[in-house]
Each structure stands twice: as C-alpha cells, then as structure tokens.
Amino acid sequence: MLIHQRTLQQEVSLHGSGLHTGKECIITFKPAPVNYGYRFIRTDLDGQPEIPALIENVVDVLRGTTIAVNDVKIHTTEHVLAALYGLQIDNCRIEMSGPEPPVMDGSSLPFAERLLSAGIVEQDEPKNYLVIDETVEYHDTKNSVDIVALPLDSFRVTVMVDYKNPALGSQHSGLFDLQKEFMQDFAPSRTFCFLSEVEALANQGIIKGGDIDNAVVIVDKTMQKDELEALGEKLGIGSDKLATGENGILNNRELRFTNEPARHKLLDMLGDIALLGMPIKAQVLAARPGHASNVEFVKQLKKYADRNKLARQYQHEKKAGVVFDINAIQNILPHRYPFLLIDKIVEFKLDEKIVSIKNVTMNEPFFQGHFPGNPIMPGVLILEAMAQTGGIMMLNGNENIKESVVYFMGIDKARFRKPVLPGDTLVIEAVMTNKRRTVCQFDAKAFVRGELVCEASLMATVVSKNK
Questions:
Q1: Is 335 a catalytic residue?
Q2: Choosing from 20, 291, 316, 335, which is the catalytic residue?
Q3: With 70 as the cut, is the pLDDT of residue 454 above it?
Q4: Is 20 annotated as a binding residue?
Q5: Which CATH class is domain 315-464?
Q6: What does pLDDT average to over the chain?
Q7: Residue 330 φ then ψ, to 5°
Q8: Above 60 in pLDDT, residue 398?
Q9: Which has the closest alpha carbon to 120: 12, 1, 268, 269?
Q10: Are 405 and 462 in contact (CB under 8 A)?
C-alpha cells in the first residue's frame, strides 16, 4: 500500500446539475496541504463556508449522504468522495458553486478521470492509516444488514446485495487492490434504482436532476404506456422517451457489468468510508449495505480510531489482553494510593463500554479496620472502583485529560449482592446509557468468579480542574 500522502498537481473542474436538487454546479478540485483531508467549500455563499467531509458532519442519508456545518449543506457526496478515496488522494480542496455535485453519468468515473488529468503528487508526510487489529462490526437486524471490518495488512471490500427481484437477484462483488481495480472495475458503475422508486421520487420532486442517462432503472412493476408517458413528463425528459424494455432494465439499457448494482453499492461504501478522514487497513465484508448502515459503520470505525488514539497516547507498551495498564491509568486518573482502586483496563469501546480489573489483596489498607478478623471490602469502595472505571470511559480523548477531572453527580439503585474478600479479583463492567455534553450516566456491575457482587447506576460530569 502507498506510504506517503497525496494531493493534486493542479486544479480541475466539472460542470453539471445535481441529481436530487437539479441545481447547476461547477465543482473544482484543488491541491491541498498535508493533513488537510477533504473539504467542500460553497463558493456561491457569503463567506465561502467550509464543510469538512467527516462522519460527524453527516446530517441525512436519504437517497445519498448529505453533510453540513450549521445550515450549509452538501448533498450526495458519495460519488465524489469515492473517486478521491479510490485514487488514494488524501488531501483535496473541493470548491462548489452549488449545494450538490453534478450527477454526470451516475458513477464516479467522470470525477476520477478528471482527477487523474490533474496529476497526482506525493507529499512529505506519511499516510495516517487506521489499522484494524480486532473485529469492528455493525448489525441492523431489522433490515438484515451486516458489516464487519477484520484485521488485514491491506484494504479489501466485499459487498453482497439481495433485492429479491428477478431483474437483479442476489449479487456480490469484491475489490482487492485499489490501484489495480478501482478505475477499471468500480469507478464506472452507475447508481441504480427501481422503477417504482422513480415514480415515488418524481411525485415527491426529489430527483429534479434525474434522467435516463444518469441512472440504471430496474423494472420491478408493470406500467402502461400512458403511465410511462406521465412519468416522462414529470422527469422533464418527454412523454415518448420511456419504455419498460425486455431485459428488465428501463429502455433496455445495457449494464456495464453483469453485477453493476453490487459494484455501485461497493462504490457508495468507499465514498462513505472516506468520511472517516483517514485510509484504513482492513478487510470489510458488507451484506445488504446502504448509506444509513454505511454511516453507522463508519461511526463505529471512528470510535475505534479514537480509542486507539487514546490508547497510543497513554499505553506506550502494547500488552496482550490489556488496553491500559496501571502506568497508563495513573496518567489518565488523578487518584493515587490509597485511593486508586483499579489495576488495568481490559476492554474499551468508546462511549459504550469499559471493563476494568481490581485485584483485592490483604495488603489493602482498609482491611485493617473493615473488619479485624473478618476482612471485607467496603461497598463504598467497590462503588468508587466502578466510578473510576466509568471515569476513564468519560475521559475519551476529546477533553484535555490533564486539565479535567470527573465528579460524581448521583448514585442510584446500588445493590451489594455478596461480600468481596482478600484474594478476590473484581471484574467491573460499565456501560454508557446516556451522554449529554459533559454529563453521562452509566450502569456498572462488579463480578467475582463470574458472580455478581455489586451493581449501581451512576451519574458523573467532566469539569475543568480550575473550576
């Protein structure tokens, strides 16, 4: 895989109308400095506002991926971003004179060809790959969507779609080498939809820039001649331009690949993965993906990246089965003897779940008085260990840890099920249940040898030390 970041040698432009808005737009790709990423600039608006192409800026996934900052939007970003990501361009300034990139032929090929014509140059900075070293997954049981990323020292994507339609059926496609396969095998794949969808979208006025030249329309219903004429009028392409055809595709259009829909789903996924803001090393397997599921999957990747960033910052020596050892914990938490009550973190899913270990020994100072001859760990200290565990989950790297501290706001539903004795190992699980800015709630449970010994719901806040 490539080592150095890349940008364009010179600027290039394209012109056309947007698929959904129908508005004319000139899109200009310009060189950008290292670590710039992809940023859209609305040159048609006062102040030329900038919208970074990042997952946290996604505001809509209906019929495409829309990003926004404040009220300034860029619609249908996926084909442009897929072209940049597929060509392994890391930094690009994307100026637009409208709210939506030109749809062109419904694929990424026109963008990719124009980007190649600009020339691609290497920069004096290494690529910031996200290396997946454990399984990251997203599942949507209701819609039968499954997406996973598996460890791999390169980048591969496999996609399967199944629409239960005779004209489409089940399809799959796989990309194994961006440099060799993207331009020829995936960039040309066009967006597709079903005839029934076109009719509904036309009635809603959503596809104002749509015509028979920028999408593959799969015939999934019977339409009479007068219905087709009315649809053509709604699309603004004329009443005599549509026919259901004989190959299951509107107007008998030929597919560029027998599995073009599956390839286009993979192309869309590349465009949505680009919103992570960094290239990845992983094998991605996706069953029945769409923009909504892609975005949720990329959010999982973002949490994984943030967790790894935090781990690299504080855990300098990688240890099997350990996210943070005691040295890292002391760099994160302000607690010290005799009040540091966790020894290591063994599982950490950012803003979701954390698991800590506390080894309880007879050397604990509290056993001298609680109770002589019958040593039992005080319940309030088990709660404190839970709080310290949750505190690490709250200090997730978005705050300045050295200048922040976690304060308790409330404890509810605390129950002590069994005594904790010298020689026991406490396994504490904390699960985030609610988070609003600097305040969060989490449910914590403590186990000894798999048996529940304590549980509670806790509320805490992150505040600056100078407050």
A1: no
A2: 291
A3: yes
A4: no
A5: alpha beta
A6: 91
A7: -70, -25
A8: no
A9: 12
A10: yes
Residues 405-409: contacts with CB within 8 Å, 24+ apart?
Answer: 405/334, 405/462, 405/463, 405/464, 405/465, 406/460, 406/461, 406/462, 407/460, 407/461, 407/463, 408/458, 408/459, 408/460, 409/439, 409/459, 409/460, 409/461
Any catalytic annotation for residue 370? yes
Domain 4-190+260-309 -> CATH class: alpha beta
pLDDT tens digits, 316-369? 787 888 999 999 999 888 899 999 999 999 999 888 899 999 999 999 999 999
Q: Is 316 annotated as a binding residue?
A: no
Any binding-site annotation on 185? no
The pLDDT confidence band at residue 167, using thresholds 50, 70 and 90, is low
Q: Report phi then psi at 63, rounded to 5.
A: 60, 20
| Number of helical (H) and strand (E) elements in the chain, helices listed first | 9, 24
> Range(s) for CATH 3.30.230.20 in the chain?
4-190+260-309
- Looking at the chain, the domain(s) classified CATH 3.10.129.10 span 315-464
Annotated active-site residue in 139, 172, 335, 370: 370
Q: Which of 466, 458, 403 is nearest to 429 (CA)?
A: 458
pTM over 0.85: no
Which H or E element spans position 201? helix 195-204
